[in-house]
Specification:
mainly alpha, about 0% strand
Amino acid sequence: MHAVGGIWGSIATGLFADHLLNPGGGDGLFNGNPHQLFVQILAVAVSVSFAFVGSFILLKLVNAIVGLRVSGEDESMGLDLSEHNESAYALELV
C-alpha cells in the first residue's frame, strides 16, 4: 500500500507539476515538460532498486543470525501458543 501510493505520487508529480504552484520547481508532462516525468520515473526505479537490495541483504543477515522461520513443531502448534503462551486463535488440545 505505501509503495504503490509513493510510486504513484512520484510519477504524478512528473505528470501534474506546475511551476505556478512551486516557482522553484518545473512543469510536468501535462504542462509541457516531458523531461520531468522521465526524472520522476528514474527516481522511482532507483528507490525501488535500493529498497529491494537493502531488504534482501538484511533478510539474509537476519536469516544467518537468528533464522526467519520457527520450527515445524511450533508452527503446527500455532505461534500464539508457542511464542506467546496464549490461546487466542489456537485450539488447546488437553
